[in-house]
Specification:
Largest sheet: 6 strands, antiparallel
Shape: globular
Helix content: 25-40%
Number of helices: 6
Number of strands: 10
Structural class: alpha+beta
Strand content: 15-25%
Oligomer: single chain
Distance between the termini: 90 Å
Strand order of the largest sheet: 2-1-3-4-5-6
Order of helices and strands: HHEEHEEEEHEEEEHH
């Protein structure tokens, strides 16, 4: 008996079967690939943290991370302590880098308890305090890491984004922008002022390092403002701990 493919019931049944079959395949693939996805996310976080403290494979202009087949070993070599700050309590946790800062900040916003990860690195005998950051750009989330020394001077940064405009706001992850932050102070007197991304900054070569400013990106004012807010809010979250290690 031939099937009447012109009937609406046939179309509905066929579409339902296809949705079930395709959905099952996608669910299976997602489940099967989840361990690999989680491993890649873990390696990416390690790469970003190391990048902020200057452990990378950059040439004169590129952004080049420690390769994934080496990053875990380098992370364990350079990162000497991983801390979790919860209120006034500071504890060691070898997996602090896996803490989802977005979720923790959401908990804070609700008035719930929250945890802040912080990483202490050592490179060539110099200590680095690496703070994770999370904020909002023009279109979606932005995030990154900022590495400080005991004088609250920036030793390096790494920024990334979810959906900023290519060639404009997406340039927060370009070398020319990130390199400008190195040597800047996050203090203005004794206040944790952060670093502002300023349009019309009178120091385009960024030779002045005590003005709490870097030059803005062309055509990306809102993203730049998001970076400024993210840095200021993040360092203020960690202010209590930073006061315990700051050289005054």
């Amino acid at each position: 008996m031939a099937i009447n493919t012109d009937k609406n019931s046939y179309t509905i049944i066929f579409a339902t079967i296809m949705v079930v079959v395709v959905g099952s395949i996608l669910a299976f693939l997602a489940s099967a690939l989840r361990p690999n996805i989680q491993e890649n996310e873990r390696f990416e976080k390690q790469q970003n943290i190391l990048y902020a403290m200057g452990v990378n494979e950059n040439d004169e202009s590129s952004v080049s991370f420690i390769p994934t087949d080496k990053v875990e070993g380098e992370f364990n070599n350079y990162i000497k302590e991983q801390l979790v700050i919860e209120g006034d309590k500071v504890t060691n946790d070898d997996e602090a880098y896996l803490i989802d800062l977005k979720k923790q900040l959401a908990a804070k916003k609700k008035g719930e308890s929250f945890k802040l990860p912080l990483f202490i690195g050592d490179k060539d005998g110099k200590k680095f305090y690496i703070i994770p950051m999370y904020g909002k750009g023009l279109w979606d989330a932005i995030w990154g890491f900022i590495a400080l020394d005991e004088t609250m001077t920036v030793q390096g940064v790494y920024f990334d984004h979810k959906g900023e405009t290519p060639g404009l706001g997406a340039n927060i992850k370009q070398r020319y922008f990130m390199d400008d932050f190195t040597g800047e102070t996050i203090l203005k007197g004794t206040k944790y002022a952060g670093i502002a991304v300023v349009k019309g900054n009178n120091d385009p070569l960024n030779n002045t390092k005590d003005d709490n400013e870097v030059d803005a990106m062309a055509g990306a004012t809102i993203t730049g403002n998001g970076v400024s807010a993210m840095i200021k809010e993040s360092v203020n979250l960690y202010k209590g701990y930073l006061e315990t290690i700051r050289v005054k």
